[in-house]
Amino acid sequence: MRSKGFDGMVCSIAGVMAAIGDRWAVLILRDLLCGLSRYEDFRHSSGVTNATLSDRLKHLEANGLVERRRYQQKPERFEYVLTKNGWQIGPAIMVLAQIGDRLDLSGASSPPMKFVNRKTGAEVGWSYIDRSTGEPVSAVDLAIEAGPGADELVHWRVSHAKARRAEAKARRAEAEANRAET
Amino acid sequence: MRSKGFDGMVCSIAGVMAAIGDRWAVLILRDLLCGLSRYEDFRHSSGVTNATLSDRLKHLEANGLVERRRYQQKPERFEYVLTKNGWQIGPAIMVLAQIGDRLDLSGASSPPMKFVNRKTGAEVGWSYIDRSTGEPVSAVDLAIEAGPGADELVHWRVSHAKARRAEAKARRAEAEANRAET
DNA sequence: TAAGCTAACTCTGATTATGAGAGTTAAGAG
DNA sequence: CTCTTAACTCTCATAATCAGAGTTAGCTTA
After folding, report:
1. What is the spatial distance, in angstroms and rounded to an integer, between the CA atom of B52 and the C1' atom of D17?
2. What is the DSSP letter of A147?
3. What confidence score (pLDDT) does residue A3 get?
4. Which helix (H) or strand (E) segment is B40 a member of?
5. What is the pLDDT of residues A61-89, one digit of tens each?
6. Contact residues, chain A, for B97 at CB < 8 Å
Protein backbone atom coordinates (compact mmCIF):
# COMPACT_ATOMS: atom_id res chain seq x y z
CA MET A 1 0.00 0.00 0.00
CA ARG A 2 1.58 3.16 -1.12
CA SER A 3 -0.06 5.60 1.25
CA LYS A 4 2.34 8.45 0.52
CA GLY A 5 0.30 11.50 -0.08
CA PHE A 6 -2.71 10.05 1.69
CA ASP A 7 -1.10 10.65 5.05
CA GLY A 8 -1.58 14.20 6.19
CA MET A 9 -4.44 14.95 3.83
CA VAL A 10 -7.28 16.87 5.39
CA CYS A 11 -10.12 14.87 3.88
CA SER A 12 -12.57 12.45 5.42
CA ILE A 13 -12.81 10.49 2.21
CA ALA A 14 -9.06 10.08 1.90
CA GLY A 15 -8.99 9.16 5.59
CA VAL A 16 -11.45 6.30 5.21
CA MET A 17 -9.80 5.07 2.02
CA ALA A 18 -6.44 5.05 3.81
CA ALA A 19 -7.93 3.18 6.76
CA ILE A 20 -9.50 0.60 4.48
CA GLY A 21 -6.39 0.21 2.35
CA ASP A 22 -7.41 -1.00 -1.09
CA ARG A 23 -10.05 -2.85 -3.01
CA TRP A 24 -9.11 -6.23 -1.60
CA ALA A 25 -9.79 -4.83 1.84
CA VAL A 26 -13.21 -3.74 0.62
CA LEU A 27 -13.99 -7.35 -0.27
CA ILE A 28 -12.75 -8.53 3.11
CA LEU A 29 -15.01 -5.97 4.75
CA ARG A 30 -17.90 -7.20 2.62
CA ASP A 31 -17.24 -10.75 3.86
CA LEU A 32 -16.96 -9.62 7.46
CA LEU A 33 -20.26 -7.77 7.17
CA CYS A 34 -21.83 -10.93 5.75
CA GLY A 35 -20.58 -12.82 8.77
CA LEU A 36 -17.47 -14.61 7.57
CA SER A 37 -14.60 -14.49 10.02
CA ARG A 38 -11.68 -16.76 9.17
CA TYR A 39 -8.59 -16.51 7.07
CA GLU A 40 -9.61 -19.39 4.85
CA ASP A 41 -13.12 -17.97 4.50
CA PHE A 42 -11.77 -14.76 3.04
CA ARG A 43 -9.42 -16.62 0.79
CA HIS A 44 -12.15 -18.79 -0.59
CA SER A 45 -14.68 -16.00 -0.83
CA SER A 46 -12.59 -13.41 -2.60
CA GLY A 47 -9.73 -15.38 -4.16
CA VAL A 48 -7.18 -13.04 -2.67
CA THR A 49 -3.62 -14.35 -2.41
CA ASN A 50 -1.94 -15.22 0.88
CA ALA A 51 0.51 -12.36 0.95
CA THR A 52 -2.14 -9.79 0.19
CA LEU A 53 -4.75 -11.19 2.55
CA SER A 54 -2.30 -11.42 5.41
CA ASP A 55 -1.14 -7.89 4.80
CA ARG A 56 -4.62 -6.47 4.45
CA LEU A 57 -5.88 -8.10 7.65
CA LYS A 58 -2.94 -6.62 9.54
CA HIS A 59 -3.68 -3.25 8.03
CA LEU A 60 -7.35 -3.37 8.98
CA GLU A 61 -6.39 -4.45 12.46
CA ALA A 62 -3.82 -1.67 12.78
CA ASN A 63 -6.51 0.80 11.76
CA GLY A 64 -8.95 -0.45 14.36
CA LEU A 65 -11.57 -1.73 11.94
CA VAL A 66 -10.98 -5.40 12.65
CA GLU A 67 -10.02 -7.40 15.72
CA ARG A 68 -7.99 -10.61 15.57
CA ARG A 69 -8.77 -13.03 18.33
CA ARG A 70 -8.12 -16.63 19.26
CA TYR A 71 -11.14 -18.87 19.06
CA GLN A 72 -9.35 -22.06 20.08
CA GLN A 73 -6.08 -23.29 21.60
CA LYS A 74 -4.32 -26.53 20.65
CA PRO A 75 -3.79 -25.74 17.95
CA GLU A 76 -4.08 -21.99 18.14
CA ARG A 77 -6.61 -20.68 15.68
CA PHE A 78 -7.65 -17.13 15.04
CA GLU A 79 -10.63 -15.35 13.63
CA TYR A 80 -11.28 -11.79 12.59
CA VAL A 81 -14.28 -9.75 13.61
CA LEU A 82 -15.37 -6.20 12.98
CA THR A 83 -14.79 -3.72 15.77
CA LYS A 84 -17.33 -1.06 16.68
CA ASN A 85 -15.59 1.25 14.23
CA GLY A 86 -15.44 -1.48 11.62
CA TRP A 87 -19.22 -1.82 11.62
CA GLN A 88 -19.46 1.86 10.70
CA ILE A 89 -18.10 1.01 7.25
CA GLY A 90 -21.22 -1.08 6.58
CA PRO A 91 -23.29 1.64 4.90
CA ALA A 92 -20.53 2.38 2.42
CA ILE A 93 -20.40 -1.26 1.34
CA MET A 94 -24.15 -1.38 1.00
CA VAL A 95 -24.29 1.78 -1.09
CA LEU A 96 -21.48 0.44 -3.25
CA ALA A 97 -23.42 -2.77 -3.82
CA GLN A 98 -26.55 -0.93 -4.84
CA ILE A 99 -24.64 1.35 -7.18
CA GLY A 100 -23.06 -1.71 -8.76
CA ASP A 101 -26.49 -3.23 -9.23
CA ARG A 102 -27.86 -0.08 -10.79
CA LEU A 103 -24.95 0.35 -13.17
CA ASP A 104 -25.03 -3.35 -13.94
CA LEU A 105 -21.45 -3.96 -12.86
CA SER A 106 -22.10 -7.11 -10.84
CA GLY A 107 -21.20 -9.58 -13.55
CA ALA A 108 -24.67 -11.11 -13.21
CA SER A 109 -27.91 -10.04 -14.86
CA SER A 110 -29.56 -9.30 -11.53
CA PRO A 111 -28.33 -8.42 -8.01
CA PRO A 112 -26.21 -11.18 -6.46
CA MET A 113 -26.90 -9.91 -2.95
CA LYS A 114 -29.77 -8.08 -1.36
CA PHE A 115 -30.25 -6.21 1.86
CA VAL A 116 -33.36 -6.86 3.86
CA ASN A 117 -34.98 -5.88 7.12
CA ARG A 118 -34.58 -9.01 9.21
CA LYS A 119 -37.79 -8.24 11.08
CA THR A 120 -40.08 -7.72 8.12
CA GLY A 121 -38.16 -9.28 5.25
CA ALA A 122 -38.63 -6.09 3.21
CA GLU A 123 -35.84 -4.90 0.95
CA VAL A 124 -33.74 -2.09 2.34
CA GLY A 125 -32.27 0.78 0.36
CA TRP A 126 -30.96 4.18 1.35
CA SER A 127 -31.89 7.78 0.85
CA TYR A 128 -30.49 11.25 1.36
CA ILE A 129 -32.29 12.89 4.25
CA ASP A 130 -32.49 16.32 5.75
CA ARG A 131 -30.68 16.01 9.05
CA SER A 132 -33.01 18.24 10.98
CA THR A 133 -36.38 17.20 9.58
CA GLY A 134 -35.60 13.63 8.53
CA GLU A 135 -37.32 14.30 5.21
CA PRO A 136 -35.85 12.71 2.07
CA VAL A 137 -33.72 15.01 -0.10
CA SER A 138 -33.33 14.65 -3.85
CA ALA A 139 -29.84 14.13 -5.29
CA VAL A 140 -30.14 17.22 -7.50
CA ASP A 141 -30.55 19.43 -4.44
CA LEU A 142 -27.31 18.26 -2.90
CA ALA A 143 -24.45 20.75 -2.70
CA ILE A 144 -20.98 20.42 -1.24
CA GLU A 145 -19.58 23.14 1.00
CA ALA A 146 -16.50 23.68 3.12
CA GLY A 147 -17.08 22.53 6.69
CA PRO A 148 -15.67 23.87 9.95
CA GLY A 149 -12.56 21.67 9.70
CA ALA A 150 -11.65 22.80 6.19
CA ASP A 151 -8.05 23.76 5.53
CA GLU A 152 -6.82 26.00 2.73
CA LEU A 153 -6.88 23.23 0.15
CA VAL A 154 -10.49 22.36 0.89
CA HIS A 155 -11.47 26.02 0.60
CA TRP A 156 -9.56 26.22 -2.65
CA ARG A 157 -11.34 23.14 -3.92
CA VAL A 158 -14.79 24.44 -3.14
CA SER A 159 -14.27 27.97 -4.43
CA HIS A 160 -12.31 26.90 -7.48
CA ALA A 161 -15.06 24.44 -8.35
CA LYS A 162 -17.56 27.29 -8.19
CA ALA A 163 -15.40 29.27 -10.60
CA ARG A 164 -15.20 26.28 -12.96
CA ARG A 165 -18.97 25.96 -12.98
CA ALA A 166 -19.27 29.67 -13.77
CA GLU A 167 -16.80 29.34 -16.65
CA ALA A 168 -18.67 26.38 -18.05
CA LYS A 169 -21.91 28.31 -17.84
CA ALA A 170 -20.34 31.27 -19.66
CA ARG A 171 -19.07 28.96 -22.40
CA ARG A 172 -22.51 27.46 -22.78
CA ALA A 173 -24.03 30.93 -23.04
CA GLU A 174 -21.49 31.93 -25.69
CA ALA A 175 -22.09 28.78 -27.70
CA GLU A 176 -25.79 29.53 -27.49
CA ALA A 177 -25.22 33.10 -28.72
CA ASN A 178 -23.09 31.90 -31.64
CA ARG A 179 -25.79 29.50 -32.64
CA ALA A 180 -28.42 32.22 -32.53
CA GLU A 181 -26.25 34.48 -34.70
CA THR A 182 -26.15 32.10 -37.67
CA MET B 1 -4.07 -1.56 -11.78
CA ARG B 2 -3.84 -5.21 -11.14
CA SER B 3 -7.43 -6.18 -11.71
CA LYS B 4 -6.74 -9.92 -11.99
CA GLY B 5 -9.24 -11.70 -9.89
CA PHE B 6 -11.64 -8.77 -9.97
CA ASP B 7 -12.61 -9.57 -13.54
CA GLY B 8 -15.22 -12.26 -13.67
CA MET B 9 -16.29 -11.92 -10.06
CA VAL B 10 -20.01 -12.01 -9.52
CA CYS B 11 -20.25 -9.16 -7.05
CA SER B 12 -21.65 -5.66 -7.39
CA ILE B 13 -19.15 -4.33 -4.88
CA ALA B 14 -16.17 -5.77 -6.71
CA GLY B 15 -17.70 -4.46 -9.94
CA VAL B 16 -17.86 -0.88 -8.72
CA MET B 17 -14.40 -1.05 -7.17
CA ALA B 18 -13.02 -2.33 -10.46
CA ALA B 19 -14.79 0.44 -12.38
CA ILE B 20 -13.44 3.07 -10.03
CA GLY B 21 -9.94 1.63 -10.00
CA ASP B 22 -8.21 2.65 -6.81
CA ARG B 23 -8.17 5.21 -4.06
CA TRP B 24 -6.68 7.92 -6.24
CA ALA B 25 -9.67 7.54 -8.50
CA VAL B 26 -11.90 8.01 -5.48
CA LEU B 27 -10.28 11.38 -4.85
CA ILE B 28 -10.68 12.34 -8.49
CA LEU B 29 -14.33 11.42 -8.25
CA ARG B 30 -14.63 13.52 -5.12
CA ASP B 31 -13.18 16.49 -7.01
CA LEU B 32 -15.45 15.92 -9.97
CA LEU B 33 -18.47 15.82 -7.68
CA CYS B 34 -17.33 19.09 -6.12
CA GLY B 35 -17.19 20.60 -9.57
CA LEU B 36 -13.52 20.52 -10.55
CA SER B 37 -12.90 19.43 -14.09
CA ARG B 38 -9.34 19.91 -15.30
CA TYR B 39 -6.16 17.93 -15.20
CA GLU B 40 -4.31 20.58 -13.21
CA ASP B 41 -7.25 20.95 -10.83
CA PHE B 42 -7.03 17.29 -9.88
CA ARG B 43 -3.30 17.44 -9.54
CA HIS B 44 -3.43 20.41 -7.26
CA SER B 45 -6.37 19.13 -5.28
CA SER B 46 -5.18 15.63 -4.58
CA GLY B 47 -1.41 15.77 -5.11
CA VAL B 48 -1.53 12.76 -7.39
CA THR B 49 1.43 12.28 -9.72
CA ASN B 50 1.22 12.77 -13.48
CA ALA B 51 1.54 9.15 -14.46
CA THR B 52 -1.12 8.02 -12.00
CA LEU B 53 -3.54 10.83 -12.76
CA SER B 54 -3.26 10.33 -16.49
CA ASP B 55 -3.78 6.61 -16.09
CA ARG B 56 -6.70 6.95 -13.70
CA LEU B 57 -8.55 9.44 -15.91
CA LYS B 58 -8.21 7.07 -18.85
CA HIS B 59 -9.48 4.24 -16.70
CA LEU B 60 -12.51 6.21 -15.51
CA GLU B 61 -13.22 7.24 -19.08
CA ALA B 62 -12.89 3.65 -20.31
CA ASN B 63 -15.37 2.61 -17.65
CA GLY B 64 -17.89 5.21 -18.65
CA LEU B 65 -17.82 7.21 -15.45
CA VAL B 66 -16.06 10.23 -16.89
CA GLU B 67 -16.09 11.99 -20.24
CA ARG B 68 -13.10 13.83 -21.70
CA ARG B 69 -13.98 16.73 -23.92
CA ARG B 70 -12.36 19.72 -25.55
CA TYR B 71 -13.31 23.03 -24.09
CA GLN B 72 -11.13 25.16 -26.38
CA GLN B 73 -9.07 24.95 -29.56
CA LYS B 74 -5.84 26.86 -30.18
CA PRO B 75 -4.35 25.49 -28.15
CA GLU B 76 -6.40 22.36 -27.61
CA ARG B 77 -7.46 21.99 -24.01
CA PHE B 78 -9.52 19.28 -22.39
CA GLU B 79 -11.69 18.89 -19.36
CA TYR B 80 -13.23 15.93 -17.62
CA VAL B 81 -16.84 15.71 -16.53
CA LEU B 82 -18.93 13.04 -14.90
CA THR B 83 -21.20 11.03 -17.14
CA LYS B 84 -24.71 10.03 -16.12
CA ASN B 85 -23.26 6.84 -14.69
CA GLY B 86 -20.46 8.75 -13.01
CA TRP B 87 -22.96 10.80 -11.03
CA GLN B 88 -24.34 7.58 -9.60
CA ILE B 89 -21.14 7.16 -7.61
CA GLY B 90 -21.97 10.33 -5.67
CA PRO B 91 -23.77 8.69 -2.75
CA ALA B 92 -20.84 6.38 -2.09
CA ILE B 93 -18.48 9.33 -1.81
CA MET B 94 -20.86 11.14 0.48
CA VAL B 95 -21.31 8.13 2.75
CA LEU B 96 -17.55 7.66 2.83
CA ALA B 97 -17.10 11.29 3.87
CA GLN B 98 -19.60 10.99 6.67
CA ILE B 99 -18.05 7.75 7.93
CA GLY B 100 -14.67 9.45 7.94
CA ASP B 101 -16.10 12.32 9.94
CA ARG B 102 -17.70 9.98 12.45
CA LEU B 103 -14.57 7.88 12.89
CA ASP B 104 -12.47 11.02 13.04
CA LEU B 105 -10.26 10.04 10.10
CA SER B 106 -10.34 13.39 8.34
CA GLY B 107 -7.09 14.71 9.74
CA ALA B 108 -8.97 17.71 11.11
CA SER B 109 -10.87 18.03 14.36
CA SER B 110 -14.16 18.69 12.60
CA PRO B 111 -15.59 17.87 9.16
CA PRO B 112 -13.65 19.51 6.30
CA MET B 113 -16.64 19.24 3.97
CA LYS B 114 -20.36 19.24 4.47
CA PHE B 115 -23.31 18.32 2.35
CA VAL B 116 -26.27 20.65 2.28
CA ASN B 117 -29.60 21.05 0.59
CA ARG B 118 -29.00 23.91 -1.81
CA LYS B 119 -32.61 24.99 -1.52
CA THR B 120 -32.85 25.16 2.24
CA GLY B 121 -29.23 25.21 3.37
CA ALA B 122 -29.95 22.36 5.77
CA GLU B 123 -27.35 19.67 6.32
CA VAL B 124 -27.96 16.46 4.46
CA GLY B 125 -27.22 12.95 5.72
CA TRP B 126 -28.48 9.56 4.68
CA SER B 127 -30.51 6.76 6.14
CA TYR B 128 -31.42 3.17 5.47
CA ILE B 129 -35.01 3.01 4.30
CA ASP B 130 -37.57 0.35 3.69
CA ARG B 131 -37.94 0.24 -0.07
CA SER B 132 -41.65 -0.33 -0.06
CA THR B 133 -42.76 1.97 2.75
CA GLY B 134 -39.97 4.54 2.69
CA GLU B 135 -39.70 4.27 6.45
CA PRO B 136 -36.22 4.50 8.02
CA VAL B 137 -34.64 1.18 9.01
CA SER B 138 -32.18 0.75 11.85
CA ALA B 139 -28.71 -0.65 11.07
CA VAL B 140 -29.17 -3.53 13.54
CA ASP B 141 -32.16 -4.80 11.55
CA LEU B 142 -30.18 -5.06 8.35
CA ALA B 143 -29.44 -8.54 7.02
CA ILE B 144 -27.66 -9.67 3.89
CA GLU B 145 -29.16 -12.36 1.68
CA ALA B 146 -28.41 -13.95 -1.65
CA GLY B 147 -30.22 -12.16 -4.45
CA PRO B 148 -31.61 -13.49 -7.73
CA GLY B 149 -28.28 -13.10 -9.52
CA ALA B 150 -26.28 -15.02 -6.92
CA ASP B 151 -23.85 -17.63 -8.18
CA GLU B 152 -22.53 -20.58 -6.20
CA LEU B 153 -19.88 -18.52 -4.45
CA VAL B 154 -22.40 -15.96 -3.24
CA HIS B 155 -24.63 -18.73 -1.92
CA TRP B 156 -21.64 -20.29 -0.23
CA ARG B 157 -20.74 -16.93 1.31
CA VAL B 158 -24.18 -16.33 2.73
CA SER B 159 -24.78 -19.84 4.05
CA HIS B 160 -21.26 -20.27 5.36
CA ALA B 161 -21.57 -16.97 7.19
CA LYS B 162 -24.73 -18.25 8.82
CA ALA B 163 -22.84 -21.33 9.96
CA ARG B 164 -20.02 -19.19 11.35
CA ARG B 165 -22.47 -17.15 13.36
CA ALA B 166 -24.02 -20.34 14.74
CA GLU B 167 -20.57 -21.65 15.74
CA ALA B 168 -19.73 -18.38 17.46
CA LYS B 169 -23.03 -18.52 19.32
CA ALA B 170 -22.33 -22.09 20.46
CA ARG B 171 -18.88 -21.10 21.69
CA ARG B 172 -20.33 -18.21 23.62
CA ALA B 173 -22.90 -20.53 25.21
CA GLU B 174 -20.15 -22.97 26.18
CA ALA B 175 -18.01 -20.24 27.68
CA GLU B 176 -21.06 -19.10 29.62
CA ALA B 177 -21.65 -22.64 30.91
CA ASN B 178 -18.03 -23.00 32.00
CA ARG B 179 -18.22 -19.78 33.89
CA ALA B 180 -21.40 -20.87 35.66
CA GLU B 181 -19.78 -24.17 36.68
CA THR B 182 -16.95 -22.56 38.68
C1' DT C 1 12.59 38.40 -30.98
C1' DA C 2 13.37 36.01 -27.24
C1' DA C 3 12.41 34.37 -22.84
C1' DG C 4 8.56 32.89 -19.84
C1' DC C 5 4.27 30.91 -18.90
C1' DT C 6 0.27 27.64 -19.03
C1' DA C 7 -2.25 23.31 -19.75
C1' DA C 8 -2.14 18.77 -20.49
C1' DC C 9 0.29 15.58 -20.88
C1' DT C 10 4.39 11.63 -21.75
C1' DC C 11 8.84 9.43 -20.36
C1' DT C 12 12.39 7.59 -17.27
C1' DG C 13 14.44 5.15 -13.50
C1' DA C 14 14.30 3.74 -8.83
C1' DT C 15 11.22 1.83 -5.48
C1' DT C 16 7.37 -0.85 -3.84
C1' DA C 17 3.33 -3.91 -4.23
C1' DT C 18 1.12 -7.93 -6.20
C1' DG C 19 0.18 -12.76 -8.01
C1' DA C 20 1.21 -17.43 -8.05
C1' DG C 21 2.56 -20.86 -5.61
C1' DA C 22 5.70 -23.45 -2.37
C1' DG C 23 6.87 -24.09 2.40
C1' DT C 24 5.93 -24.02 7.65
C1' DT C 25 3.84 -25.23 12.11
C1' DA C 26 1.06 -27.62 15.24
C1' DA C 27 -2.41 -30.84 16.14
C1' DG C 28 -5.92 -34.33 15.25
C1' DA C 29 -7.60 -38.32 12.07
C1' DG C 30 -7.06 -42.68 9.58
C1' DC D 1 3.36 -42.71 9.92
C1' DT D 2 1.17 -40.32 6.57
C1' DC D 3 -2.77 -37.11 5.56
C1' DT D 4 -5.40 -33.13 6.43
C1' DT D 5 -6.67 -28.52 8.23
C1' DA D 6 -5.95 -23.69 9.55
C1' DA D 7 -3.34 -19.88 9.39
C1' DC D 8 0.15 -18.27 7.92
C1' DT D 9 5.27 -16.87 5.93
C1' DC D 10 8.66 -16.80 2.00
C1' DT D 11 10.33 -16.33 -2.68
C1' DC D 12 10.60 -14.51 -7.08
C1' DA D 13 9.01 -12.62 -11.41
C1' DT D 14 6.09 -9.04 -12.89
C1' DA D 15 3.51 -4.87 -12.69
C1' DA D 16 2.27 -0.38 -10.57
C1' DT D 17 3.79 3.96 -8.29
C1' DC D 18 6.63 8.05 -7.10
C1' DA D 19 9.33 11.93 -8.12
C1' DG D 20 10.64 14.63 -11.32
C1' DA D 21 12.26 15.92 -16.05
C1' DG D 22 10.78 16.70 -20.72
C1' DT D 23 7.27 17.85 -24.55
C1' DT D 24 4.04 20.58 -27.37
C1' DA D 25 1.59 24.46 -28.82
C1' DG D 26 0.12 28.72 -28.45
C1' DC D 27 -0.02 33.04 -25.69
C1' DT D 28 2.20 37.00 -23.04
C1' DT D 29 5.58 40.07 -21.23
C1' DA D 30 10.07 42.75 -21.95
Report:
1. 7
2. -
3. 53
4. helix B39-46
5. 999 999 999 999 888 999 999 999 999 99
6. 12-13, 16
